[in-house]
Amino acid sequence: MRISLEQLTAFSAIASEHSFSSAARKLGKSQSALSIAIANLEIDLGLTLFNRSNRYPQLTTEGKALLRDAEAILEQCFSMENRANSLSKELETEVTISIDDAIPYQAISPVLQDFSRQFPHTDLIVLHPSSQDALSMIENESVQLGIMCTRAHYSMNLRFKRLGNISFCNVASRDHPLNKGKPVTFSQLNQYRQLVYLPFLNKLPTSEYLNSPNHWRVESYLTLMHMLRDGMGWATVPKQLMQELNLHQQLVELQLDAYPFTEWVVGVDLVWSAPLRSGQALAWLRARLGQKSIASLVTE
């Protein structure tokens, strides 16, 4: 029996995409090539991996069991390639990373300062795309590393490491009518304009309850914060970002009547493409960011 990495890659991709055609597009192969690879793999193993009787291929019991082995082998291959690349001492001329707008700069500033000293001749490009755009850019390797609020699901080609959480609170300007010194009800919130950070629309834990009929959608947290300061509405914002912008004297956290003991938290992940070969600079940056939690980075 001689199983190839190409067969295992096809197996993993089809299982992840639930489609031969989608997996073929993702891998840049023809659908027929993937079908042949899986057929040959099933012959070599003497087992049926997919039930093809329905519209979409479904893993058989044997397929589910062997998928874990296949993905473990692929992970080891990615790890070996990255280790070999690091040993070869390749040094990138530039590294591109993406950072969610919600992540306070203070959280990663010490690492970037160290990076500038360690790799003075490597250019760093920092982008702030939406989370969905960032994932696509990491998958197509136009971005090598992403720091983003946690997603419910990452594709098979992506790896992640949880860096911790950031806390959110509901705030308004100190002079806003909602700040009357007593808990605020949902009906009172709904009487005033809500400022919504567009990439988090319907994604924050409070979204199902806190949804004013009058809301403005804003793509930049910096703009949203200044709109809050000017009394244009209330919003759910990261506490650390409010502190970093030194707005905690001008903005006041609203005490919600229904949530007296609740703190809203969202996970933060470091995300990268598993197949991407990491040079010396990128390997250093990924390892350094992954060493500490967001909380410790903020207080560093």
Automatic annotation (TrEMBL):
<dbReference type="InterPro" id="IPR036388">
    <property type="entry name" value="WH-like_DNA-bd_sf"/>
</dbReference>
<keyword id="KW-0805">Transcription regulation</keyword>
<keyword id="KW-0238">DNA-binding</keyword>
<dbReference type="InterPro" id="IPR005119">
    <property type="entry name" value="LysR_subst-bd"/>
</dbReference>
<dbReference type="Pfam" id="PF03466">
    <property type="entry name" value="LysR_substrate"/>
</dbReference>
<comment type="similarity">
    <text>Belongs to the LysR transcriptional regulatory family.</text>
</comment>
<dbReference type="GO" id="GO:0000976">
    <property type="term" value="F:transcription cis-regulatory region binding"/>
</dbReference>
<dbReference type="InterPro" id="IPR036390">
    <property type="entry name" value="WH_DNA-bd_sf"/>
</dbReference>
<dbReference type="GO" id="GO:0003700">
    <property type="term" value="F:DNA-binding transcription factor activity"/>
</dbReference>
<keyword id="KW-0804">Transcription</keyword>
<dbReference type="InterPro" id="IPR000847">
    <property type="entry name" value="LysR_HTH_N"/>
</dbReference>
<protein>
    <submittedName>
        <fullName>HTH-type transcriptional activator AllS</fullName>
    </submittedName>
</protein>
<dbReference type="Pfam" id="PF00126">
    <property type="entry name" value="HTH_1"/>
</dbReference>
<feature type="domain" description="HTH lysR-type">
    <location>
        <begin position="3"/>
        <end position="60"/>
    </location>
</feature>
